[in-house]
Amino acid sequence: MENAAIHDLFVIGGGINGCGIARDTVGRGYSVYLAEMNDLASGTSSGSTKLIHGGLRYLEHYEFRLVREALMEREVIWKNAPHIVWPLRFVLPHHKGLRPAWLLRLGLFLYDHIGGRKLLPKTQTLDMTADAAGRPLKKLFSRAFEYSDCWVNDARFVVLNARDAADKGATIATRSTVVGARREGDHWVISLKETHGEKRWDVKARMVINAAGPWIDEVLGGVLGKSGAHNVRLVQGSHIVIPRKFDDPRAYFFQNADGRIIFAIPYEEDFTLIGTTDRDYGGDPRDVRITDDEVDYLCAAASEYFAEPVTRDDVVWTYAAVRPLYDDGASKAQEATRDYVLKTEGGDGAAPLLNVFGGKITTYRRLSEHALEKIEGFLGKKGQPWTADAPLPGGDFPASGFEAQVKALMRDYGFLDDGHARRLVRLYGTRARQLLGDATEASALGQCFGADLYEAEIRYLMRYEWALTADDVVWRRTKRGLRLSTGEIADLDAFMSANISA
Ligand SMILES: Cc1cc2nc3c(=O)[nH]c(=O)nc-3n(C[C@H](O)[C@H](O)[C@H](O)COP(=O)(O)OP(=O)(O)OC[C@H]3O[C@@H](n4cnc5c(N)ncnc54)[C@H](O)[C@@H]3O)c2cc1C
User: Can you tell me which atom of ligand 1 is nearest the CA of 320?
Assistant: First the structure.
């Protein structure tokens, strides 16, 4: 038994929803233990399109509650994490033969007016024969609409929520698989096992939160022993990354003839991100990978718009993830609700359980506030909602203050070039200074593993952000994997293994 104390809450899953709930609850005074079987954000939460968005497309499915809540969150999240979140303008070409212009205008009118927009600029119409946004496209589009949403570094969003939760007293146990949970009267005994080792231990808690994303049914069945649990609809979405296709800082929103849409988004300075697909998934979520058909679909959809076609040979990286949607019985994957559903059971002497279905990265904070209403009903009220106005670690500077942060970092660390300083502020915000310490020259940052990735950053990630392997660093805490060679990544992995407990 690792800990004889009874925690208030035990959270299964270190994705955005688990980490968001852990942060919110510990900040209100509950004691919290979170277990993640792999790395933080190793599930769906690092495989999203990375938009803090209302979801223009969901208006077609009459998801007004979700769209309004999501739109309202854009500026809240941007203000609380201005390092990893920034505004992005989207260009939506009007395609004759697809949705009529009046429908797009109506959707965007709602988008502008129901979402509490204060800082983000409003929608405007573009003349694509004159606007720079028309340049990389085929000469088929005379008109487009330009509107606002935000971009988020999804994997870091999760880690920063976990960091804040830990700073406030939560236990965050990564590489720890929940293998069983049983009720003992008014509390739970949760059994854990090291994911890559043999160590086993138990933790007691008054309430369990099942935030296992795509594994939610597996947890209900395998861990909690409920037979026939089937509440989640797994819908795969995949993305391709290609060398930068256009210079414009805006992203594109392309409609496809099949009624779906895809985005083409400026990515990691030198690349373009294209996605996503929407297909039911029947396999193990651990094994999800982009299929050849999906690559072809995304290349073909983008090539309908770009003058220079996108081909398989352009693809430098891909990723795929599974949406853990609540199974509302919709016939098509793209029509299944994107809203979240919170289901509780227990109480009256039986230890309570809360299951979290669906949810967007965008609405994780509101999902947590709604979860708290349920939690309070079982455990009693503690504290007030507080996360709307609380910066995430490193995000304690004004929403418009990114450039000033870069300038100040370059002034104080004269050896940083513009690209390196920008990258550090984008990833760590004000905590970049903690990472750099009292270094006065690059050599003080230790070994360089390539592409500005120095030992000081790795040590910071291992000490404060639960990074254990090169994969954690190059594909989740950073995206340096796009620039490092296989050999460089192997050297990093060897360095990290040698320094795990250092
Ligand atoms: C292709 C795609 C694009 C998307 N785009 C967007 C977007 O642009 N904007 C947006 O807002 N949302 C988007 N979403 C939705 C969003 O990414 C997800 O809704 C969200 O990440 C789900 O988070 P989660 O915490 O519920 O699940 P996850 O991130 O999957 O977290 C669940 C965690 O539980 C862990 N776990 C499971 N079982 C156990 C166990 N037994 N013990 C310990 N740990 C366990 C897993 O390892 C996993 O890390 C997108 C989703 C997809 C798939």
Answer: 1
Is the pLDDT confidence value at 99 over 90? no
Q: Is residue 473 part of a domain?
A: yes
Do 414 and 276 have their domain in common?
no
Question: Which pLDDT score is estimated for 3?
Answer: 56
Determine whether the shortest distance from the Cβ of 298 to ligand 1 is under 6 A.
no
Task: Tell me which of 21, 45, 287, 365 to substitute to probe ligand 1's pocket, judged by most ligand atoms within 8 Å of the beta carbon.
Answer: 45
Centre of ligand 1 from the C-alpha of residue 43, in Å? 5
Q: Indicate which CATH number applies to the domain containing 373.
A: 3.50.50.60
Please check the confidence at residue 2 and state whether its pLDDT lies above 70: no
Q: Across residues 448-458, what is the average pLDDT?
A: 98
Task: Check whether residue 295 and residue 238 sit in a common domain.
Answer: yes
CB of 54 within 6 A of ligand 1: the answer is no
More confident residue, 228 or 359: 359
Distance 73 CA to ligand 1 centre (A): 18
Q: Which two tokens stand for residue 200?
A: 């086993």
How many separate domains does the chain show? 3
Find out whether 354 and 207 touch, Cβ atoms under 8 Å: yes
The pLDDT > 70 percentage for the chain reads 99
User: Given ligand 1 and candidates 274, 323, 362, 364, which is best to mutate, with the most ligand atoms within 8 Å of its CB?
Assistant: 323
Sign of CA dihedral 159, 162, 168, 172: negative
Q: Which domain holds residue 449?
A: 402-498
Q: Are 55 and 70 in contact (CB under 8 A)?
A: yes
**Overall average pLDDT of the 222-251 stretch:** 91
429 and 288, same domain (yes or no):
no
Cα–Cα distance for residue pair 216/228, rounded to 1 Å: 13
Q: What is the pLDDT of residue 455?
A: 98
- For ligand 1, atom 50, the nearest C-alpha belongs to 48
Is 227 in the same domain as 237?
no
Residue 31 included in any domain: yes
* d(C-alpha 10, C-alpha 148), whole Å: 37
DSSP three-state, residue 135: coil
- Residue 457 is assigned to a structural domain of this protein: yes
